Amino acid sequence: MTIQKEFELFIGPNHPGATGNMSYHIWVEGDKVKKAETRVGYLHRGFEKLMEKRIWMQNVPLVCRICVPEPDVNEASYSMAVEDLMGWEIPERAKYIRTIILEMARISAHLLTVGGIAASLGIYTAAQWGIGDRDYLLDVFEQITGGRVYHIYIWPGGVRWDLPKNTKELLTKVLDYLESRLPLYDDLIMNNKVFVRRAADVGVVPKDKAVEWGVTGPNLRAAGYEYDVRKLEPYAAYDKIDFEIPHYPKLGEYEVLSEGSDIYTRTAIRMLEIQQSIKIIRQALKDMPEGDVLLKHPQWFAWKVPAGYAYSHVESSKGEFGYFVVSDGEKKPVRVHVRGPSYTHGINVMETIAPGLNVADFAPTAISLDVCPPDIER
Predict the structure, then answer these.
(1) Are 162 and 293 in contact (CB under 8 A)?
(2) 59, 140, 211, 323: which sits with the fewest CB atoms below 10 Å from its CB?
C-alpha cells in the first residue's frame, strides 16, 4: 500500500520562480500541485490612498512604481484621466511621442518575460539575452527622459520635453539590432524541442472562462480573443498607425501546436508583439509632426481639476491598465482606483489553474501569466 503525503512548498519571494517580490504557497502530493495560494505584502503598498494625499502633479512620479518593468503605462493612463477631467486635447507631436515611449516599454517588458519563461524551463541563456538586449532600450530611455527605470516623462498635457535631436538615429539603430536578434530568440526558444514539449498544452486557461475571469492582454489574445485597447479605443497616435493584433490561432511564423491559451501560445504572442512594436515605433518616427509637446499649464501647485470623475485605460504588455479618478474641484484627487491585470492573473487565475500541474510546471505557468507584484499591492 502506497502512502501519499502532502507537502507545503514556498516559491518566492527570493525564488526565481516568482515574478518579483511575491510568493506562492503551494501544497503538493508527490509531484502534483494540490492547492496554491498567492502571498503578497513584501512590497511598498497603498499607492491609491497615497495619491489622495498628493497634489495632481505629485502623483506622476508615484504611479510609475505600480509596475516597475513597464512604468510608462501608469503615467499615460493617469495623465489621460486628468486630461479628460480638464477637457484637454494634447498636441499631436506629444501623441506620437507617447506612442513611441509606450511601445519601447512594451518591448522592454516582453524581453524580460520571454526570457523569464524560458529560464524557468532551464534555458537560462534566454534570460541573459533578454536582460542584455533590454539594456539598449534603457540607454534610449535614459537619453530621452534622463532615467533608465522610472521615466516620469508622460505628464498631464503631453510629455515632459521634446525628443533629443539624435533620438531617431539612436532608436532606429537599436530597433535594427533587436530585429536582427529575433531569429536567434526563435532558434533558442520557440524552435527548441525542450521548450515546445514543456510549454505546449501546459498551464492552460480555459477559453470559455478567460473573459469571465477578467483575463486581458497577451494572455487573453492567446486564448483566441482579438481584443486590444489600442485598436478598440485608440489613444495617443494609435488611430493613425497600421499594426496587427497577434492572437490565437494567427501565430505568424510559429506553429499552432495546441488549442491555445497555454505557455507556448502566450510566449508566441509576446514574440509577435515585439515585431509589431518595432513596426509601430518606425511608423511613429516617420510620421511624427513638428510642434509643441506640452500644453501650457497653470502653476503646478495651484492646479485645480474640475469636479467629476473619469476612467482611462491603456493596453500594457501585461494586459489592460485603467485609472478611475475622482475630483472634487480641489488640488488633490478625492479617489484614485487602479485596474491592473496582475491582481486577476496572479491571484484568481493562478490559484484556479494550479491544481493538477506538475510542480516543475508551476513556475513557467506563473511567469507566462506575467504578473507585476506592486500592481497587486497598489
Answers:
(1) yes
(2) 211
